[in-house]
Amino acid sequence: MSERMAGQEFADVRAILDDLDFPATKEQIVAHGEARDRGSGEVVRLLRALPLGTYDNISQIRSSVPLDPAADDGLGAGDEMRKARSPHDQKVAQHLRSPDA
């Protein structure tokens, strides 16, 4: 997936970084975000999740910020963890299945 950041999150990041000079390192981006973010801190949290490197523009930042992988399939974090815990959760022998399943 090339666009990792959701629409509203991207709008918030773009607003915080609108006067940042590119190219910028992750450290410069995070410091700029910390200085300008007056909200919940969500933007700074997203920026801290950036991989180390130098970014040439806001589009590279957008495609690099990892989001909750469960957001793509509508599952919550707990659901996603349970799903990842056992690859056999859907593979129950016929004789062990409940009659209504």
From TrEMBL:
Residues 79-101 have a biased composition (Basic and acidic residues). Residues 65-101 are annotated as: Disordered. InterPro entries: DUF2795 (IPR021527). It comes from the Bacteria. This is DUF2795 domain-containing protein. It comes from Polymorphospora rubra.
